[in-house]
Amino acid sequence: MKLNRYIWTRKAIHLMASILPVLYYHFFSRYQFFAIILVLTIIALLTEFLRFKNEKFAGVFYKVFGKLLWKNESNALSGSTTFIIGALIATVLFSKTITVTVLLFLTFGDTIAYFVGNTVARIKIVGEKTLEGVIACFLMSFLIALIIPEISFWHGLLGALVASIVEILPWRIDDNFSIPVIAGAFLQLLTYI
């Protein structure tokens, strides 16, 4: 599959979103990060509301961002909005370390899964999702978990596995939301066992 420049741009933005959890890990308290993500969530939801309800705004929005949207995002929340909402929920429900980990699973794991799945993969397993993409997502997520000192080897291994499984599930929930929420809940649960 040939990847056009809009897909490259979209995935570059996805990777740049990793700045948020990195900044959270190194510089912000949970409350500071919550405030930042809350403001971003309000801006994202306001943008979505205006996109759907105001023709003038929608015209400008689609002129600037239209080619970066997937087809299903024309009548639904954009991936960036679901990412921010997922980040907000993760920040509220999970520890700082787990929130950072699952947001990095999403930004890096999901991106590598897309590129591997659409360039070199051959074995389709769920819809358009491929075995090679899932393996790439798992390996990248596990590598991220190994880099974060507070995440144990086994928790990282299992968390990466859950994130990879969530990434391929054939449901209508955007993985920008489901990966941080479900993998985060799983990792948080592991801390109590």
Would you write up a description of this structure?
It is a single chain. This protein is mainly α. It has one domain. The protein has 9 helices and 2 strands; from the N terminus they run ααααααββααα. It has helices at 5-16, 19-27, 30-53, 55-65, 79-93, 96-119, 131-147, 153-168, 175-192; strands at 124-126, 129-130. A two-stranded antiparallel sheet has the order 1-2. A hairpin with a 2-residue loop joins strand 1 (124-126) and strand 2. Helix 6 (96-119) runs antiparallel to helix 7.
Query: Main sheet, how many strands, which sense, barrel?
Result: 2 strands, antiparallel
Shape: globular
- The level of helicity is over 70%
Biggest sheet strand order reads 1-2
- Give the overall average pLDDT: 92
Q: Can you tell me the residue ranges where pLDDT is under 50 for at least 5 consecutive residues?
A: none
Run of helices and strands: HHHHHHEEHHH
In short:
By secondary structure, the chain is mainly α. Helices cover 76% and strands 3% of the residues. The protein is built from nine helices and two strands, in the order H-H-H-H-H-H-E-E-H-H-H.
Features:
two-stranded antiparallel sheet, mainly alpha, 193 residues, 2 strands, globular, single chain
What is the element layout, followed by pairings?
Blueprint: H1 5-16, H2 19-27, H3 30-53, H4 55-65, H5 79-93, H6 96-119, E1 124-126, E2 129-130, H7 131-147, H8 153-168, H9 175-192
Antiparallel strand pairs: 1-2
Helix pairs in contact: 2-6, 3-4, 3-5, 5-9, 6-7, 6-8, 6-9, 7-8, 8-9
